[in-house]
Predict the 3D structure of the following.
Amino acid sequence: MAYSDKVVDHYNNPRNVGTLDKGSQEVGTGLVGAPECGDVMRLQIRVNPETQVIEEAKFKTFGCGSAIASSSLATEWIKGRTVEDALAIKNTDIVKELSLPPVKIHCSVLAEDAIRAAIGDWKKKNGVAEAAPAATTAQ
Amino acid sequence: MLKIIDSAVPVACWSCAVANNESVLFCPHCSKIQPPPGGDYFSVFGLTPRLDLDLSELEHEFHRLSRKLHPDRFARAGENEKQWSLADTALLNDAYRTLKDPIHRTEYLLKLHGAAIGEEHSGKDRKDPSRVPADLLEEVFELNMQLEEMRMARKTGEEDAALQGSLEQARSKFVGLLDDVDEDLRGQWKIWDAGDAGARATAQKTMVALLDRRRYLSNLVRDVTETLGA
């Protein structure tokens, strides 16, 4: 299958690969999986407690090129946004940006799930009320 | 998209015009080859769809039909029959490959019955937390991290005996878990094969979850084996 140039770029030069301190109060961690293909993705955010801005985002994904590119792009997009703004990112935005083919749409869903799970975890840690249906996969 | 063609609708043989209800490669009346039938893979072999399948019977039918479809037998046949022998052979091979593999067979039959499996499921279904086992995810992720560490160590020429040992342990553990899943699947096969609609629906749900779990495990076993075997 041919990957788009943007996928190849993110795959070869993934942004923000790494780990944040899971135990920190300011860090939210989302670990999600795609049962379609067995991929796993961990996305972490460090949120400024004053401004609620995501100042740092890191990911680690074990999976195909599209899954890596989707999570790499997701970290780029959420950095600098407030938590609530980041929740506005939809998997369809990722599909569009990376020109993902239909069989790889679940990779973008995984990235959206990871954002929600990380934010959900951060909210839980910091006692922020959960906005209705978000972050169902947060652990 | 898979669908079951209503096999109760009789199809008339192109040669002898006798209608038959079965989905067959050869007319039961005049034995002439038929165009690829529209039924499911089981009907190609004249089998009732089931999960706990007699593989020796399947294999026997496969070889018998393969011989009957061999192109040499149609060297002097009409153009249609020649084409059909090729198309039927392709169908027979696809059907055999799918049905002889226990996982492919299970996925195929459950899809025929409307289960959302593999690439096809999305939307609300995937939000069902029972589909994503959290404890398994943690383990899969951790082991992947170790695998990566080991590959890195290899690159720089530093073999880590302790890491190697722990990966070998992990491999046997996950191979064991994979065996457990397969065992559970076989148990569900029997329930599905024997069950009424209600029992089938429950067994189907259980199997879809087992197949999800299996995908993580088999990826992991593949990757560990690749790294350790290198």
